[in-house]
TrEMBL record:
Pfam families the record matches: Epimerase (PF01370)
Gene3D superfamilies: NAD(P)-binding Rossmann-like Domain (3.40.50.720)
PANTHER family for this protein: BIFUNCTIONAL POLYMYXIN RESISTANCE PROTEIN ARNA, NAD(P)-BINDING DOMAIN-CONTAINING PROTEIN
Protein name per its UniProtKB record: NAD-dependent epimerase/dehydratase domain-containing protein
Organism: Caulobacter flavus
CDD domains: SDR_e
Residue ranges of every copy of the NAD-dependent epimerase/dehydratase domain listed in the record: 5-234
Residues spanning the signal sequence: none
Length: 312
């Protein structure tokens, strides 16, 4: 029997990669989104009769509960993503990122599966030299981090759900995001040949968009053993400072010049290194390292105009 997956925020960066993979694996997908851009990021999915786009708001309880009634698996992707966007629109950030997910949890039965992407920005500012594990206290320093952590806690408190704490995502997708750090710095290397960095020693972990989709598939397929747990999802080979990231990009774009500003500060104060050992112990491994992803971006950026794909 075909399993049905409900995805909210389906036409976003992650959904545009994940949904084709779910369809290819034989799942039926109800793809809920406002589709505000009227673009064609999921157009190729329409060839599959198991794909059902639904135009609507993830906060519409009557609509969402009607879709939940048919769902075996729920993946709530609808969110205002990133600290700058959430700061610009705090009401929508809170109601979409937190309240809408808690509404799903309230209406979910124990026989239904939920896999939720939170963010390892919930770790905020880590202890120097100490890896953040899933047991590390969550100390978000932005509304984005706080709202996502609230949603994650609601799922884990319910006793039914897998949450994936995503590292900073990079890579090409039909619904592109150029504001993400690897994507942004690679864009600047290609277009400006230079970037000025604030607080270049701040570290983060990174993960390719296709490995994010692979983590969702892995959580669905191993739900019985992974249930009621949070998992960091990132590249163990890529706990890098901003300066180290730029040096990696420079290997691909030798003309790229990066300088650290002697004064000024980054409004995003996140600084941490992350252990992904818990997820790796379940048998998940990433396919895309940073170098492969940068190469992909360099090919993709021959086709893009940044003004179309900014998130803010």
């Amino acid at each position: 029997m075909t399993q049905r997956v409900l995805i909210t925020g389906a036409a976003g960066y992650i959904g545009s990669i994940l949904i084709p993979q779910l369809l290819q694996k034989g799942y039926a997908v109800d793809a809920l989104d406002l589709f505000p851009r009227g673009d064609t990021v999921l157009a190729a999915c329409c060839a599959d009769p198991n794909f059902n786009p639904v135009k609507g708001d993830a906060r519409d309880e009557a609509l969402v509960t009607s879709l939940l009634a048919k769902a075996d698996i729920v993946i709530p992707l609808a969110a205002l993503v990133g600290a700058p966007l959430c700061k610009m629109d705090p009401l929508n950030a809170q109601t979409t990122n937190s309240d809408a997910v808690r509404m799903i949890v309230k209406n979910l039965s124990s026989s239904q599966k939920i896999v939720y992407p939170t963010t390892n920005s919930g770790y905020g500012i880590g202890e120097k030299g100490q890896f953040c594990t899933e047991e590390t206290p969550l100390r978000p320093i932005s509304l984005y981090g706080t709202s996502k952590v609230e949603a994650e806690m609601a799922i884990l408190d319910s006793g039914n759900g897998v949450t994936v704490r995503l590292a900073t995502v990079f890579g090409m997708a039909p619904r592109m995001r150029i504001d993400l750090l690897v994507n942004d710095f690679t864009w600047r290397a290609v277009t400006d040949r230079a970037v000025v960095i604030f607080e270049g020693h701040f570290k983060r972990n990174y993960i390719h968009i296709r490995d994010v989709a692979k983590a969702f598939m892995h959580a669905i397929e191993n739900y019985g053993t992974m249930n009621n747990n949070a998992y960091n999802v990132g590249l163990s080979s890529a706990n890098l400072s901003k300066l180290e990231l730029c040096a990696q990009i420079q290997k691909h774009v030798p003309q790229f010049v990066f300088l650290e500003a002697p004064i000024g500060e980054d409004p995003d104060k996140r600084d941490y290194i992350v252990s992904n050992a818990k997820l790796e112990a379940t048998g998940w491994t990433p396919d895309w390292d940073l170098d492969r992803g940068i190469g992909e971006l360099l090919r993709g950026y021959k086709m893009l105009l940044n003004s179309r794909y900014s998130n803010v």
